[in-house]
């Protein structure tokens, strides 16, 4: 059932899943009035993240239907609240995964809002006013300005959209290990998908030697010729894995399928670190010997804080980094989600919201939604 929160008076057209079939259909709903800390954004583009698929289909058992997915949003500011000094009407902006955090804990104070215990997501979250948040598969968004970032003028708004989730997810661990400012390291990127391909671009832009590690030999040419990777290891090829032992300073593991971390850890030098950003629904296999006999560490990381999202965007502007995308339209979201489920996309779908007609639904549905 749609929400009926006071002040939610703006009618918006969007696209939602209504049950665990995950099928996305047109949906008319309400957003809050633009508050004093808010900006209203006319959405131009929204990326399709793997998370959208999980949430639409209730894979994690936490979906509140109807759900309007989308947390890789770019658009133009159309309204600003009286407290907002950092944005003006007409600004090109982006919104990622965060809609609200507590603003008071140590993590919020240090702009690591992504680790706030009270963080609420851009969709399927609960905003400060008690309303359920609706995401970027829609024509318009009202967002608190503290969770909004500027998109550099030289970046196209469609290919910049996935930077808001995929981009910052791989940037944050690189930054955390000072790899954005200490060039010349040997970095491994496991998995060449939506996350991995941006990680390779960052690695090269920051002056590192980048090795892609993948189960698919067919990706070698693309990794090297198109993305600029220096080396490629087929993880199912024992000889190649042997040759790569103790060669890497740092590994970013983007794979979201169940796998064993042991052979990958062997690729790290002594004292090296692997950061895991993929989220398999089954536990990893983690043998102790490669950790103990190489003093190696395995860590996790989730998206990024707002300051580092801003820093990432500036660096993307400076180095001209965007995602490689396939543009799609709202009426083809279901086909796109099916292909995302099969990892059949290079490397991210982005929905062209700007050029789509407003969602239309039949009268019955409008009544029950409003
Ligand atoms: Zn995402
Ligand atoms: Zn907090």
UniProtKB/TrEMBL annotation:
GO terms for molecular function: cinnamyl-alcohol dehydrogenase activity; zinc ion binding. GO terms for biological process: lignin biosynthetic process. Gene3D superfamilies: Medium-chain alcohol dehydrogenases, catalytic domain, NAD(P)-binding Rossmann-like Domain. It comes from the Eukaryota. It is an enzyme of class 1 (oxidoreductase). Its EC number is 1.1.1.195. Pfam families: ADH_N, ADH_zinc_N. InterPro entries: ADH-like_C, ADH-like_N, ADH_Zn_CS, CAD-like, ER, GroES-like_sf, NAD(P)-bd_dom_sf. Keywords: Metal-binding, Oxidoreductase, Zinc. Its cofactor is Zn(2+). Residues 17-351 form the Enoyl reductase (ER) domain. Belongs to the zinc-containing alcohol dehydrogenase family. This is Putative cinnamyl-alcohol dehydrogenase. The lineage of its organism: Eukaryota, Viridiplantae, Streptophyta, Embryophyta, Tracheophyta.
